[in-house]
Write a structure and sequence with these properties.
This protein is an alpha+beta fold and 294 residues long. The protein is built from 7 helices and 11 strands. The chain is globular and about 50 Å long.
């Protein structure tokens, strides 16, 4: 995975900030390593109602749509099975379809790109003061039936999940601790393996729960393991994500560790921020240029 160029973000400010100044200050204090709750004022945006999201699904490529059963355990082995419904049916009947759906990279559609970039613009000063240029902004919309579960997994981006409709509880675990996601699993993920993680009930000893109602959001550090349970009503959430030079270096250091592990070595895990991880990252990038690593 290569480093993305810095992406210019529109500077047109909304009449009312979605993240008020106290919330932006709270984010700046905790970013990038500490999970925390935020308040937002995105409200019932017309782009986020069920009809609009069903229409959005029809405008996205198939590769940007994932949907499956919602009555899943916290831990699964591989990808869950589909429901047999179309994505449009799944979304329009989410209250009764017993499903979980995600629309990925909604920034491919102009009006959703504008929404995403305007949100990130409010946070960009705090982000870039800590982790440098904001890279690869992406948006993901989650539409879930009552009581649906998003199984235990991790993600490579810096992430804020904004709750818009319904409620859910995100359960997070410390990022970078091998008890919750072994180093070899990180390395496999960065070479194309799954993001789903092996679950054991005793992991709950290290859990932090973040209940979310409409108007609330939670920040998720890079590669922090987590799972999500939806409340008694159907749910709509928007995830706004970005990468940084640090997150790419952490990923490439994991990739280089995979090379070392294949050679019979037991490499040290990459450091968490503010460790740079650049020597291992540069080593992997050199191997890629020589065609010696994927």
């Amino acid at each position: 995975m290569g480093i993305e160029q810095h992406i210019a973000i529109p500077t047109e400010a909304a009449a009312t900030a979605v993240f008020p100044p106290p919330q932006r200050a709270h984010f700046a204090t905790n970013y990038p390593e500490t999970p925390h709750l935020l308040r937002h004022r995105l409200g019932e945006n017309a782009l986020m109602n069920l009809d609009a999201l069903a229409a959005l699904a029809g405008r996205l490529p198939d590769s940007s749509i994932e949907y499956n059963r919602g009555d899943l355990p916290v831990g699964i082995d591989g990808k869950p099975a589909p429901t047999g419904l179309s994505i449009e049916e799944t979304i329009r009947h989410i209250a009764t379809s017993n499903s979980w759906a995600v629309l990925k990279n909604v920034e491919q559609v102009p009006e959703y790109r504008t929404l995403l970039l305007n949100l990130l613009e409010e946070l960009r000063p705090a982000i870039e003061a800590r982790t440098g240029a904001m890279l690869r902004p992406q948006g993901f919309v989650f539409i879930s039936s009552p009581n649906a579960v998003t199984p235990y997994h991790f993600d490579p981006e810096h992430n804020i999940l904004l709750q818009l409709v319904g409620s859910k509880v995100m359960t997070q675990f410390p990022a970078g601790e091998p008890r919750f996601a072994p180093d070899a699993v990180h390395e496999s993920y960065h070479s194309g393996g799954p993001r789903e993680l092996r679950w054991q009930d005793d992991l709950m000893e290290g859990a932090s729960e973040f209940p979310l109602d409409p108007g609330e959001a939670v920040y998720v550090p890079v590669m922090a393991p987590h799972f999500v349970r939806v409340g008694p009503d159907s749910s709509i959430s928007l995830s706004i994500t970005w990468r940084s030079d640090w997150s790419f270096a952490e990923a490439d250091a994991r990739g280089f560790n995979r090379v070392l592990r294949k050679a019979g070595l037991t490499p040290a895990a990459p450091g968490r921020w503010p460790a740079t991880n650049k020597p291992k990252a540069y080593a992997l990038r050199a191997l890629r240029k020589l065609g010696l690593a994927g």
